[in-house]
């Protein structure tokens, strides 16, 4: 993409093709011979990382679409079937879902890098604007993808975001109806979002081609911010940039794999494991972390239209950056003031992200408004002003001079920025975490679970006992509709044989039909059948339970959580603590009190529970000592029942957890080996360049 | 050649490059496996393909029914004496896909023919009781099968396959 190439293949067949379609020459001049500044640091590898992420998302997305059903009644279930039944479906889903977060993580670093080193300045304005377009497309794609699992956050996220357009004067309502294809978010909305979610990544890929084209016309910017002049300033893209990018990608994959195999739900909202319910809004609507700063700006402004305009304006203003910042010096390295204000701006963005996850009340609103003003002031006041008053330090004459000047001690800024980034990411996540903490109820005590940690396995005995507790107690009110009898005989579960699972199934009566006479009939359960639900529908369940709907327990340990608070949530990322759900379920089962504390007004037909949010629960105390007898001599106590049934329900929520952690270990051994090898290879290759 | 060059004696550098490339190649190959494996039938599909039982009592002599197993139509024909005779009269060696009628039914249950009703040519469903041999006739490309489901005429290369099945009792079979 940098003009005609002198590349000539030697193979006569390739020569024949090359004369008619010079594609090999194009590839050679773009990715082999292409001169790349020799002083690029590792922040520049995020371009390659982003290309990889786009490829990964498209590949896994196309595969997931083979198994996904875009229908309001079936979408949630089809996602669960992917995770439970499709070969490696859990892996593909984790790659795709964490992949979205990784994609945004990488794009934010890429954008801040561009901001810091002035990569938007002449002659790279179009390159930068194309990047802003890609970012906008990514946001639309990510949002619509988040809607597809059709959980509670999907549904209500879709409702809130589409309602943004209702702020448009005169046409607002019509636009929103047009987006929905109905009177509310529903099946037509889901269908079109699926279609567009499939389309937009290919549009992104197209704009990426333009982005790379524009990059190769203008040439890469670099930390010194001076253009490459002589051959001494550059190295050929291959092998130098290629190997450096590969090493960067490999390091990034280590980070990514940590989420895929060990913390797949760390960035997700437990609320999204509850199927979409148009009648109940979750207590805290929080977008995915990558939208939080803009969400904070939206909420800071007390006027509907102005809030929406400000939110979109916060993104659109980026496109005008090349003209807002007139400074001749590109790199902030040589701009003492711009450098400091850059970090202030990063802090403002992170602060906004933190506030976006907080409840919109009290001090949060005030700080949110201050940070919103600072956000816009950076672009609209500070940068234009700085370009007039700032005295930049002298820039090096050439890239080669820059390389020579800093032959010692250059790693420090990189390390400190990585640490700063980690803390920033932690703060953002902490915001989400503390939003959950505000929901009321005591914090459940953290228990020791056999399945926690990187080598965790389900305690077979506990899963078997838990199944007994579920069958004899819980199943009278709660369904387990995503678990089939055949699952009982699968690896990583309670460890029953196929015959035992079949015998267990045959104890159940399952409705089947119609038969040849057109009638429904009951027959003994088969391994392929799912646990029958105790009530035929939600209305029947409510009628039998004083108006409350006993939730299906298939995903309960993933659908419940509680805030861990600072700094535990940060430590959790490294210790892989992710048992908030099981801790909560076990605590609720044991948290009943005969008498509510003095002054607590318990409604009629409710019971007091220490750990249930709000403390007033409709479920009567389900377990009491001696209720279930275990064959293996385990104590018949509520504590034992609670622990066992929670272990069983954790397995029911994620039957392939053991496979996930096992494969994770293999992948980590491999990736560490690859990263070490790439590091030394990179060193060897670059030894030639110095 | 007097001086040692890297082409003659692999250096440490060459070893590093080859090792890195090999490890990366192994990783790429291993990554492909889940991406391909996901195309295979998922666990619920496999579980739904469990054996089924069919009650034969409602099928009168000369009649046949079609049941579905693993998404495939299975013809169960209650053959008449005449149909059985026709199937056994023909010299086996003269058939395109030589198989005796006895080997295609269960001993003692000669009147019951159980075959997968999918034409071995290109997968259409042949119509029962049609064609020159009183067996099956495929309307797509004109393959003709006899009363034992053996190919007699047309482009199909082989007989209609017999699915795995057993007689649970005289009037009930289990397919699969």
Characterize the structure shown.
The complex is a heterodimer of chains A (690) and B (176). With 690 residues, chain A is mainly α. Chain A folds into three domains: 1-33, no CATH class; 34-402 and 411-438 and 664-687, Cytochrome Bc1 Complex, Chain C, CATH 1.20.810.10; 460-663, Cytochrome Bc1 Complex, Chain D, domain 2. Chain A has helices at 12-20, 23-31, 46-67, 75-84, 89-116, 125-147, 152-163, 172-180, 187-218, 237-262, 292-300, 304-319, 321-324, 336-356, 363-389, 399-405, 411-437, 460-472, 498-506, 538-544, 556-559, 568-575, 580-590, 638-653, 657-687; strands at 35-37, 234-236, 509-512, 521-524, 592-593, 607-609, 616-617. Chain A is globular and about 85 Å long. Chain A starts with 11 loop residues before the first helix and ends with a helix. Chain B has a four-stranded antiparallel β-sheet. A three-stranded antiparallel β-sheet of chain B has the order 1-10-9, with no helix packed on it. Chain B has 176 residues and is α+β, with helices and mostly antiparallel strands. Chain B has helices at 12-37, 43-48, 81-89, and strands at 52-55, 64-69, 72-78, 112-116, 127-128, 134-137, 144-146, 151-153, 165-169, 172-175. Chain B starts with 11 loop residues before the first helix and ends with a strand. Chain B contains three helices and ten strands; from the N terminus they run H-H-E-E-E-H-E-E-E-E-E-E-E. Classes of the chains: A mainly alpha (690), B alpha+beta (176). The A-B interface holds A 59, 63, 66-67, 81, 84-89, 91-92, 246, 484, 486, 490, 516, 526-528, 670-671, 673-674, 677-678, 680-681, 684 and B 13, 16-17, 19-20, 23-24, 26-27, 30, 34-35, 37-40, 42-45, 47-48, 50, 58.
């Amino acid at each position: 993409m940098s003009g005609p190439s002198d590349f000539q293949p030697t193979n006569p067949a390739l020569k024949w093709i090359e004369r008619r379609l010079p594609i090999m020459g194009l590839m050679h001049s773009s990715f082999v011979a292409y001169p790349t500044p020799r002083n690029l640091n590792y922040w520049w590898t995020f371009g390659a990382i982003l290309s990889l992420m786009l490829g990964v998302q498209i590949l896994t997305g196309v595969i997931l679409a083979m198994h996904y059903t875009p229908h309001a009644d079936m979408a949630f279930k089809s996602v669960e079937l992917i995770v439970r039944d499709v070969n490696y479906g859990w892996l593909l889903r984790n790659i795709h879902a964490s992949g979205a977060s990784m994609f945004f993580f990488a794009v934010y670093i890429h954008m801040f890098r561009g901001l810091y080193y002035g990569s938007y300045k002449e002659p790279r304005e179009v390159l930068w604007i194309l990047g802003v377009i890609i970012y906008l497309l990514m946001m639309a794609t990510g949002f619509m993808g988040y809607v597809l699992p059709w959980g509670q956050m999907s549904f209500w996220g879709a409702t809130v975001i589409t309602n943004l357009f209702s702020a448009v004067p005169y046409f607002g309502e019509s636009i929103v109806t047009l987006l929905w294809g109905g009177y509310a978010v529903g099946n037509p909305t889901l269908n079109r979002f699926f279609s567009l979610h499939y389309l937009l990544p290919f549009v992104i890929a197209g704009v990426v081609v333009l982005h790379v084209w524009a990059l190769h016309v203008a040439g890469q910017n670099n930390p010194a911010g001076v253009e490459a002049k002589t051959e001494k300033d550059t190295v050929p893209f291959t092998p130098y940039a290629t190997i450096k990018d590969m090493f960067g990608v490999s390091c990034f994959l280590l980070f990514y794999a940590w989420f895929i195999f060990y913390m797949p739900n760390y960035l997700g909202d437990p609320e999204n494991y509850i199927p979409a319910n148009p009648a109940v809004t979750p207590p805290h609507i929080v977008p995915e972390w990558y939208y939080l700063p803009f969400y904070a700006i939206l909420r800071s402004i007390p006027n509907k239209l102005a809030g929406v305009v400000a939110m979109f304006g916060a993104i659109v203003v980026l496109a005008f950056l090349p003209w807002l910042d007139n400074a001749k010096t590109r790199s902030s390295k040589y701009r003492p003031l711009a450098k400091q204000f850059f970090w202030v701006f990063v802090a403002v963005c992170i602060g906004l992200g933190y506030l976006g996850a907080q409840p919109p009340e009290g001090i949060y609103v005030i700080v949110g408004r201050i940070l919103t003003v600072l956000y816009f002031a950076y672009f609209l006041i500070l940068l234009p002003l700085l370009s007039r008053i700032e005295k930049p330090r002298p820039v090096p004459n050439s890239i080669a001079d820059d390389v020579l000047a800093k032959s010692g001690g250059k790693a420090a800024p990189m390390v400190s920025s990585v640490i700063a980034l980690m803390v920033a990411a932690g703060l953002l996540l902490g915001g989400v975490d503390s939003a959950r903490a505000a929901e009321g109820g005591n914090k459940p005590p953290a228990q020791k679970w056999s399945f926690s940690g990187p080598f965790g396995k389900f305690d077979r005995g506990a899963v078997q006992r838990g199944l007994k507790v579920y069958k004899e107690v819980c199943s009278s009110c709660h369904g387990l509709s995503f678990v089939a009898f055949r699952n009982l005989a699968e690896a990583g579960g309670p460890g029953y044989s196929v015959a035992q699972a079949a015998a267990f199934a045959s104890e159940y009566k399952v409705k089947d039909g119609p038969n040849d006479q057109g009638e429904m009939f009951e027959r003994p359960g088969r391994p392929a059948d799912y646990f029958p639900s105790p009530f035929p529908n939600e209305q029947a369940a409510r009628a039998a339970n004083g108006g409350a709907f006993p939730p299906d327990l298939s995903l309960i340990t993933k659908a419940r959580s509680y805030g861990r608070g600072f700094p535990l949530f940060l430590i959790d990322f490294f210790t892989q603590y992710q048992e908030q759900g099981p801790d909560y379920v076990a605590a609720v089962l044991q948290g009943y009190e005969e008498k509510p504390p003095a002054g607590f007004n318990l409604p009629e037909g409710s019971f007091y529970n220490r750990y249930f949010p709000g403390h007033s629960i409709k479920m009567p105390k389900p377990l009491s000592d001696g209720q279930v007898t275990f064959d293996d001599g385990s104590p018949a106590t509520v504590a034992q029942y609670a622990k066992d049934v929670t272990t069983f329900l954790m397995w029911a929520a994620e039957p392939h957890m053991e496979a996930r952690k096992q494969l994770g270990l293999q992948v980590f051994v491999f990736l560490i080996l690859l990263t070490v090898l790439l590091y030394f290879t990179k060193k060897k290759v670059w030894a030639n360049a110095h | 050649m007097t001086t040692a060059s890297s082409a003659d004696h692999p250096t440490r550098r060459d070893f590093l490059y080859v090792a890195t490339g090999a490890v990366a190649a192994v990783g790429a190959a291993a990554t492909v496996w889940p991406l391909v494996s996901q195309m295979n039938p998922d666990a619920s599909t496999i579980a739904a393909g469990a054996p089924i039982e069919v009650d034969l009592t409602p099928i009168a002599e000369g009649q046949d029914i079609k049941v579905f197993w693993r998404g495939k139509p299975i013809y169960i024909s209650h053959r008449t004496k005449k149909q059985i005779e026709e199937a056994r009269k023909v010299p086996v060696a003269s058939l395109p896909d030589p198989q005796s009628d006895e080997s295609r039914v269960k001993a003692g249950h000669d009147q019951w023919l159980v075959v997968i009703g999918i034409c071995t040519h290109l997968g259409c469903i042949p119509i029962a009781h049609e064609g020159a041999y009183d067996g099956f006739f495929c309307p797509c490309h004109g393959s003709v099968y006899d009363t034992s489901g053996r190919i007699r005429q047309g482009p199909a290369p082989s007989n209609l396959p017999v699915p795995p099945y057993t007689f649970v009792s005289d009037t009930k079979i289990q397919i699969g």
